[in-house]
Design brief:
- It is built from 16 helices and 19 strands.
- The longest helix is centred in the N-terminal third of the chain and has 30 residues.
- It has three domains: 139 residues, Response regulator (Rossmann fold), CATH 3.40.50; 122 residues, PAS domain (Beta-Lactamase, 2-Layer Sandwich), CATH 3.30.450; 164 residues, 2-Layer Sandwich (Alpha-Beta Plaits), CATH 3.30.70.
- About 1% of the residues have low confidence.
- The protein is α/β, with parallel strands linked by helices.
Length: 444
Amino acid sequence: MSRNVLLILSDAAEAKVVRRSLVNSRDGPFKVEWVSRCCDAIERLRNQRGEEIAAVMVDLFLSDSQGIATFDQLSRASPHVPILVLSHLRDEDVARLAVQRGAQDYLLQERLDGHSLPRTLSSMLERSAYAEALFLERERAQVTLNSIGDAVISTDVAGNVTYLNVVAESMTGWTRQEASGRPLQEVLRIIDGDSREPALNPLAIAIVHNKSVGLSANCVLIRRDGYESAIEATAAPIHDRRGQVTGAVIVFHDASVTRAMSLRMSYLAQHDFLTELPNRMLLNDRLARAIAWAQRHRTSLAVLFLDVDHFKHINDSLGHAIGDQVLQSIAQRLVACVRRSDTVSRQGGDEFVILLSEVARAADAAFTADKILAAVSRPHRIGHQDLHVTVSAGIGVYPDDGADAETLLKNADIALFQAKDHGRSNHQFFEPGMEVRALSERCV
């Protein structure tokens, strides 16, 4: 990952101080290019000569550009490069506005030190790299959908076609451009092979009932030119991050084609590729369902937010391949520590979240956390060496620490920060006031 940073400051002395703190930082190394004017920065971003610029740090008040206009120009010049705003206290409102418009973060120059700046910059670069990886994953998914043997069609909530992959184009006789916006029944003509009557629309059923449904047996697809083929199909609703149905997708194939590919794709969409644990999407779904059940039955549940202590040191000293094996070993132990009804998920990086679907009292969650801390701290045999790692845990209990999934996870994360602050390798329950302390300590 490139760590070449473009620093845009009018004051040469300030730029020298910032540059020195970055070049000599343990979070580096960073390579810093300095310019004093917005126009010079735009020219550098538009003409990525030599090493590519990975991030921009800028004081929005320059000799040739002032305020939010500076950010807008830089963002237009290179929209994919993350921007960190260096602001004075008197200009903090402008810095906040820049964040609302897409800046990654801002720091107050009056509070800069040799620790917070490089750490913030390093975190920003990691987030940017993660976002780029997600983009590539989406591109890879697009290629995959066009490479699999199954046909895929998606619709909006009104039942109008929004997407066909190349197999669906071949099987229906409609191109993606021609089918887009048309009612599904016009593009996907399915009849019962015995009665020759139109089959029930599986996508409509999936949307109305908000669940996956299979196409009834002995169904036949009539292609646009009249050719008929027996198919098997599964339809499922598509949700946004709030769980609202926004459309549906149907996957179908000739009856002779095996179903394995479709099942594998569904699995990969909901599980982490490294540990095969449920991913963030599946956790959110299970957590929402568990909260709804607990609300109806007036019971409690708990969320444990875990982070591997000093994991960066493992990656830096032993390599990412060893780090991946450590994460896999930790994942296995976490699963062994909980019930089958609970969910162990990987959030990404070295973070895990465990959903304890039902707890009688908070002490139950503490017991499980202690069990996990002990299990993970035992040596991990990786290759021919024993590695010793620990985890820290933050605990949030429903409903006291959050009445919804987002609040509960956030508060468990805040409790995790406190566990880190208390020496790591321990667990902390969320308590009112922790959020204020965490924010205060992070700004120091």
